[in-house]
């Protein structure tokens, strides 16, 4: 295959209600087994809950995604029979993907006794992440600490 130029990804269509491409990506991440309408309803319900609390849902969502994204992570690199955890910078696209994945993951892990639906869990997780709190932020900090602890192996970057 030719490597003469980089492959450009097709642009996702903007979200029909809020006109936001990032939100459209998030809906696709929430979707399971091709049930996009169900995913849309869950995400829109979560944004409605945020709106009811007197916050701007799109600002909260964008802030949550930007806060939750890690700047550094570790990748395993094998050198001379030993495996090292090498800290590397996270590029923009992956940073957003990880943030979305973690928000959805930790929203799903919230207690069913406390919250009635996934939309409630998602709304609370987005609000907490936008304020720099919650499990998602704790996960990001753990990844940052791992990268910081393995700074000695930074010269193995590739």
From TrEMBL:
Reply yes or no: does the keyword ATP-binding apply. no
What Pfam families is this protein classified in? Ribosomal_S7
Q: In which domain of life is the source organism classified?
A: Bacteria
- One Gene Ontology CC term in the entry: small ribosomal subunit
Q: Which positions fall inside the Small ribosomal subunit protein uS7 domain?
A: 3-151
Assembly description: Part of the 30S ribosomal subunit. Contacts proteins S9 and S11.
Known role: One of the primary rRNA binding proteins, it binds directly to 16S rRNA where it nucleates assembly of the head domain of the 30S subunit. Is located at the subunit interface close to the decoding center, probably blocks exit of the E-site tRNA.
Q: Which family does it belong to?
A: Belongs to the universal ribosomal protein uS7 family.
Q: What name is this protein filed under?
A: Small ribosomal subunit protein uS7
Organism encoding this protein: Candidatus Gottesmanbacteria bacterium RIFCSPLOWO2_01_FULL_46_9
Cite the source lineage.
Answer: Bacteria, Candidatus Gottesmaniibacteriota
């Amino acid at each position: 295959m030719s490597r003469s130029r980089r492959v450009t990804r097709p642009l996702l269509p903007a979200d029909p209600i809020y006109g936001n491409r990032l939100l459209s990506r998030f809906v696709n991440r929430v979707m399971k087994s091709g049930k996009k309408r169900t995913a849309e309803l869950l995400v829109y319900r979560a944004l409605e809950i945020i709106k009811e609390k007197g916050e701007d849902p799109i600002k909260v969502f964008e802030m949550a995604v930007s806060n939750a994204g890690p700047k550094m992570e570790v990748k395993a690199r094998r050198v001379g029979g030993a495996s090292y955890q090498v800290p590397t910078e996270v590029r923009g696209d992956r940073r957003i993907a990880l943030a979305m994945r973690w928000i959805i993951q930790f929203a799903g892990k919230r207690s069913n006794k406390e919250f009635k639906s996934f939309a409630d869990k998602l709304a609370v997780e987005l609000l907490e992440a936008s304020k720099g709190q919650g499990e998602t932020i704790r996960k990001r900090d753990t990844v940052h600490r791992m990268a910081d602890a393995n700074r000695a192996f930074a010269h193995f970057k590739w």
